[in-house]
Amino acid sequence: MVKKTLNDILAEDDDSGLLLNLKPSPGSASSEDLRIRQKFEEINLFIDRNARVPGEVEEGKKVPPSEKMLQYALSGIRGNDEAVAILVHYDRHNLLAQVQAATSTPKSLKEIVDSDDELLSTKADDIFKFKNAPVSNARPDRVSQRRVCKDFSAFKPLFDACAVDLKSGARKTLEFKNEQEIEAGGFFILNGTMIYVAEVKDRHLRNGKQNARLRLIFDNGTEGDNLLRSLSAELYKDGPAGRGRRVTAADDGPLFTGKSDVEYRQSGRDREEKDVEIAEEDIETGEIYVLRSLSANPSIRELDGHLFKIGFTAGSVEERIVAAKDDPTFLMAPVKPVKSYRVYNINTVKMENLLHHFFGSACLDIEILDRFNKPCRPREWFLVSIEVVDSAIKMLIDGSIVRHRYDRESGQIVAL
Questions:
Q1: CA 248 → CA 50, 150, 174, distances in Å?
Q2: Is there a contact between 45 and 37 (Cβ–Cβ < 8 Å)?
Q3: Distance in angstroms (rounded) separating the CA atoms of residues 372 and 356
Q4: Span 264-294, pLDDT tens digits
Q5: Is 412 exposed, middle or buried (0-12, 13-18, 19+ CB in 10 A)?
Q6: Cβ–Cβ contacts within 10 Å for residue 64, how many?
Q7: Contact 213, 143 (CB under 8 A)
Q8: Are 164 and 250 in contact (CB under 8 A)?
Q9: Is the pTM of this model over 0.85?
């Protein structure tokens, strides 16, 4: 009998199945499989921590390099049928569900016909007709960029006073919980930086929700014109507990600190005329301004001399009104300053709210379309005489305004 060589043995039929290609057991995994599973677990952990898929960041925000690597890894996994099959049992965030459904192979003709396939629904279907187009997300009209605040010297005393209040306990920091807390005159802390909301303007609806354009002053001497909802989104994410901080108002003190200080001027009058002498230690907090509209709208023009806007700005009135014709707050028209009152040592938020509440019954009820044809209702225009406004602000200074009210019928301030 001739002895068989190894080649002869391998060439024979393997009736016993000993030489069939062996598949790895279910419990075993190659080094490549382990690498894919480890990378997929990194993606799962990222979603656990951030509640979003890698690469899905807010419009205009850059994706960090480490996150971009996870984004690319997930894209590669989704495009690899073998990787999808390996990872389907570890997909706790349903990242591969659509890929698995798209790549499943029908087992029979009946399964194909019975499937919910748009191409097979009717004979009249047109495969070249584009259907179910995704709704595009609204994009911001511009992306805010921080820039040097040229009038930061006007805001620095506010930051200094806030820091003193925080140290003394007159103010506290609370977890940010509601975007409605964002108002002009408010302080917030984001990523360790203190922010002052100098102005809230251009209120409008975006994606069915209220929004506004803010002028934000940062304690490092820069400023930005972020959207209200963009700021709130960043405040929600900030901090160990996932929240930024809101600085409370010093509500336990009076409206004015120390004596009642105000410097006022009327259009054409000497700027140096003062009610009181301003001392070096007094903190300038901004200007109360009174404006009249120069709108060409007939319904607004007929109210000229009886319609005035009462507002507050931490900067200058001239800078505040430079873009009035594009701002629904100013009735989408140029305005003219009538009077302004430069105030010191004052709680600005309480002051403005008190004035608007005092003249609340005389507030103009009007709807204005902004430059995006979105309806807005400005709430700072009042049907009053300039003499009455002047009297109300002087009462605000001496504190007697709390013992009076504005009577809409007579157009006068009357005692309670």
A1: 28, 27, 7
A2: no
A3: 27
A4: 444 333 333 344 444 555 555 678 889 999 9
A5: middle
A6: 11
A7: no
A8: no
A9: no
